# Entry
Amino acid sequence: MSRQAHRLKASARTVGALALGELCATMEAAGEAGDTAMLTALLPLFEQELDAVNAFLDALPVPRTDHRPYP
# Structure
């Protein structure tokens, strides 16, 4: 678990999802400590933050790929 949290922490921070990155850092530490109770408590927060990041990404405009002029 801590390995996956570490990877996602770095990726989240790279794209500016800092709250998700911090939550992943906390989950990483809990995983390294073997604190399954903490991981269980953090999971709903993780899901909520991930949903917020996904909603933000889904709201971004999709760039056009056809290089035709706008009508």
Observations:
- The chain has a mean pLDDT of 90.
